[in-house]
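I hope you will forgive my troubling you with a question about protein structure. The full record is reproduced below for your convenience:

——
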Amino acid sequence: MILEFLLVLLVAITGAKLGGLASNRLGQPAVVGELLVGLILGPTVLDLLHLPLFSSEHLGETIHLLAELGVVFLMFVAGLEIELEEMASAGRVAVLAGILGVVVPLILGAITALPFGYSPIKSLFIGVILTATSVSISAQTLMELGVLRSREGIALLGAAVVDDVLVILILSLFVALADGSGGLIDVVWVVVKMVVYLGAAAVLGVRLIPAFTRWIDRVPVSEGLLAGAIVAMLAFAWSAEALGGVALITGAFIAGVLFARTPLRDRIEIKMHAVAYAFFVPIFFVSIGLQANARLIGGGSLVFATLIVIVAIVSKVIGSGWGAHLAGFDSQASLRLGTGMISRGEVGLIVATVGLDNGFISDEVFAITVVMVLATTLITPLLLRQMFAGQPGVMHAPQPAREVE
């Protein structure tokens, strides 16, 4: 088991870094190359985990768990680059972009599925899948371009938090009402947990994190500051989903934002960045491709899959972009924000998994969802680079420190 595990890690990290290097040389964000390497290594092409070299049935699950840690680290690092005051200033834009970024995909997704013979309930759940947003890929791309702290970048991260809360609420409502096991009380309880968690995390974090950071830095243990930051990040990520009913990546992002308010922010960022981008984040990007099996899609489902991918892209641009425009962004800024919300990432897969477990979707629809997630994840960094081309402050070449660590 351990030898197979080491070999998979060797292939995944080496492939991710080489793919990122090739992507940089072609003038694209490193994440594009890393994702494509994952697709090549996955069941669509090589099916790495099922080659004769690997016989352990738990290998895929282990890699998936490491990938989940990767996205937690990634969102924590993204949070470290954000000023809480700047994020609060984008409140109106974030709220409207987040709400319409959920409503429009939900409606368009359901309408798209109905003509293909899916029942109203199944069609509606396909719409629910399309409401999800995972800005980890967008955050990585904006960090590479040096514009994460632009007004669009800050509003994008705020809108993603709003989107996450709404998606979890809708998913909970759908499951409670569709199987007849719950009702209004269950939905109210979900809302209460979210509100209490977000409020408690903000209040306790603002009060305790700075003092905790100063204390842990004085404790005579090796890498105490880094260990303390990781412990806090994991606590926020765990409590977000276990106690608040919010996605764990939201908890990790909140932890990063709170640590960004401490005087030791720069030291924490350097150390966390090294750990994340040397090991965990490359595994996360590659793992997305490892889950995609485009071979399952064929015949009539290919047309449906193509339409779902198109609707997934267009609906977020229209919905979130429209919301941003209503809140005062100009057309160009609104288009950038809407584009940044396209990627579905692991959040879309989580929603689809819940649907599969509850019988709302079939294995075929789940495979289509995986392909949709991969397609939206691949196209987002490409479009963002084009959207921000020529803007002041944009890195015309990727930042070396962030790419080769």
About this structure: Residues 396-405 have pLDDT under 50 and may be disordered. The chain is about 75% helix and 0% strand. Residues 12-20+29-50+64-403 form a domain with the Na+/H+ antiporter like fold fold (CATH 1.20.1530.20).
